[in-house]
């Protein structure tokens, strides 16, 4: 069973699909198209690099600008290759390991897919 989204008008959880492409709320009689609900921001997140390429787990990326590490940890130089990235849903998008630095978090806007 799939779950239906709450009513956008009254937030009721008792919504259902009428079989004709609409969701229906029995409490306030609001109807809205199924398609719009599926395009909501809750849809699977797509990660893109600085050039707009779609990134996936395991990709190799190149750092496009010098990144200073917090706490005087050094600088990850522009052009550094980062292998086997893992995409995460936090303020930094990429978990990875960089030779000489160890585990790191990066932002997708500062990398380009190799
Ligand atoms: Zn409603």
Give a brief rundown of this model.
The protein is mainly beta and 114 residues long. The chain is 4% helix and 32% strand. The protein has a 3-stranded antiparallel sheet. Strands 9-6-13 form a 3-stranded antiparallel sheet, with no helix packed on it.
Uncertain parts: none
Domain module count: 2
Overall structural class, as computed from helix and strand content, comes to mainly beta
Distinct ligand kinds: zinc ion
Let me know the average pLDDT: 89
The share of residues in helices is under 10%
Strand order of the largest sheet: 1-2-3
CATH architectural arrangement of the largest domain: Roll
Radius of gyration, in angstroms, nearest whole number? 21 Å
Family: Belongs to the YjdM family.
Domain Protein YjdM C-terminal: 48-113
InterPro entries: YjdM, YjdM_C, YjdM_N
Protein name: Zinc ribbon domain-containing protein YjdM
What does this structure look like?
This protein has two domains: about 1-45, N-terminal domain of TfIIb, CATH 2.20.25; about 45-114, Roll (SH3 type barrels), CATH 2.30.30. Helices cover about 5% and strands about 30% of the residues. It has one helix and 13 strands. The chain has one helix at about 35-40; strands at about 15, 20-25, 30-35, 45-50, 55, 60-65, 65-70, 75, 80, 85, 95-100, 100-105, 110-114. A three-stranded antiparallel sheet has the order 1-2-3. A three-stranded antiparallel sheet has the order 9-6-13, with no helix packed on it. A three-stranded antiparallel sheet has the order 10-11-12, with no helix packed on it. The structure holds zinc ion (ZN). Zinc ion binds near residues 7 and 12. Belongs to the YjdM family. This is Zinc ribbon domain-containing protein YjdM. It comes from Massilia terrae.
